[in-house]
Amino acid sequence: MGANLEAVKDTGEKNNGFIVDDDSKATWCMRKIKHMKNKQRENKELAEEQIAEIRKEIAEVESWLESENGKLDDSISFMENKLEYYARQLKENNPELKTHKLPFGSIKFRSQRPKWNYDDEKLLEFVEESISEVVKVEKKVDKRELKKRLDVAGDRAVVKETGQIVEGIEIIERPEKLKIDV
């Protein structure tokens, strides 16, 4: 058994000459799989420990950023308030003013469309009664319930009661799935 077992290296490289043809070789393969899965678990644990430490460092940097930018946001708001007061004075002196250009930027006045706030429940109730053609209805097939009412005929689905072929369904047979537990 030793010569054939050496044909599969620990690195996972395959040698086509190695064949599992008895329980002893199958047991050896399972033992190797078990060791590799244990190594994967150890690798994951190590990675998670490192990630946890890095997350702590990220949290420290994010906290610093929030603190520093918070101070700057306060200063920006202060300056914007001063500019808004100045801009309102300019607009008062020239009601047609749209843009006032300066070396480091512009002060602009633009009209806005009104904002619409919706109470969706009340709105839906009203629209269903008064303007029902603008109500959107979403249709969807309940596939779980549908399967209960169908049979398989080759690669097609058919309605159990009528034998009618169901359009829009193709049945694709698949081979058994092999699962190896170690």
Walkthrough of the structure:
Residues 1-13 have low confidence and may be disordered. The chain contains 4 helices and 4 strands, in the order ααββααββ. With 182 residues, the protein is mostly helical. 51% of the residues lie in helices and 9% in strands. A two-stranded antiparallel sheet has the order 1-2. A two-stranded antiparallel ribbon has the order 3-4. The protein has a domain at 2-111. 1% of the residues are buried. It is flat and about 95 Å long. The protein has helices spanning 2-5, 23-93, 120-130, 143-148; strands at residues 99-102, 105-108, 150-153, 156-159.
Total helices: the number is: 4
Helix content range: 40-55%
The helix-strand sequence is: HHEEHHEE
**Main sheet: which strands, in order across?**
1-2
Summing up helix and strand content along with how strands pair, one would put the structural category as: mainly alpha
Please indicate the percent range of residues in DSSP E strands (runs of 2 or more): 5-15%
Major sheet details: 2 strands, antiparallel
Low-pLDDT parts are: 1-13
The best one-word shape is flat
Q: Say how many strands there are.
A: 4
Query: Which radius of gyration do the C-alpha atoms yield?
Result: 35 Å
Question: Could you report the average pLDDT, rounded to the nearest whole number?
Answer: 89
Gap between N and C termini: 21 Å
